[in-house]
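Anyone able to model this chain together with 1-O-phosphono-alpha-D-glucopyranose?
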Amino acid sequence: MPTSTRPPRIRKAIFPVAGLGTRVLPATKSIPKEMLTLVDKPVLQVVMEEAREAGIEHFIFVTGRNKQVIEDHFDMAYELEDSLQKRGKLDILAQLRAERPAAGTTSFTRQQEPLGLGHAVWCARDIVGDEPFAVLLPDMITIGKTGCMKQCMEVYKAAGGNVVAVEECDPAIAHQYGIVGVGKEVSKQGFRITAMVEKPPRSTAPSNRYITGRYILQPEIFKILEKGERGAGGEIQLTDGMVSLMKKQPFHGMTYNGITYDCGSKLGYLQATVAYALSRKDLADAARREIAALLG
Ligand code: G1P
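re: yes, here you go
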């Protein structure tokens, strides 16, 4: 019998949600930044739905102090559901129930010290175990016909290995992100990554393709992150871990067919809110009308 060459299915996703959200203070003084809303949904729920669309079955949240409300959000709110039922608000009740993750499909662990993204991902190693997994950074909202993680899965199915979503950026802001070097095509949207650098000094970036915060990674990354080597900003960087793993395993870039918005900044958050409203069938027409009226 011929053995299948399909790479193993990606079942689990890590959501690093321990950050303080200092760039959008005072909004985040008592609310985790991941719970800020895009119209009527917390950004974290929007990102979680992107993962679910891509076939993810288990959702791992790496949280920190004062983030308990995230756990509550993905739990059943018995009193609320009961009140909605008694008041006959059955549409929203059905929506809440449909969106709630099934029992046993979420895990929460804490990043006890703010040591960087690589460290946050490493904190989930025991929950992930020995299988490839996804990472989604909830600061980054991706809006397109299909979600960014689903598109990453297509490249993973075609090429295997590790997959990193990228998009073009203005070279003037490349120093704020992770940047990849672009090699030969491996599929319609996929290419071989030839280099990766986290927050390259100005004018040294290997290209203008920046890492947008969606990854599919092999579990060997955990052994590398465990070493705790510090990189840009004195932090344990996920990008540096990937650079080490790249010596042994292929990394593929996936050029996202859509747009990513950085909700960590005030303007990015505003853009994401408008783009999200315009992407919703139930809101798009009215939103377009109101925005046009506001702009005069
Ligand atoms: C992280 C990653 C970086 C990526 C960025 C996207 O950086 O390290 O490679 O481009 O997210 O938002 P951070 O935003 O945590 O500084």
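Residues 266-279 form the longest helix (14 residues).
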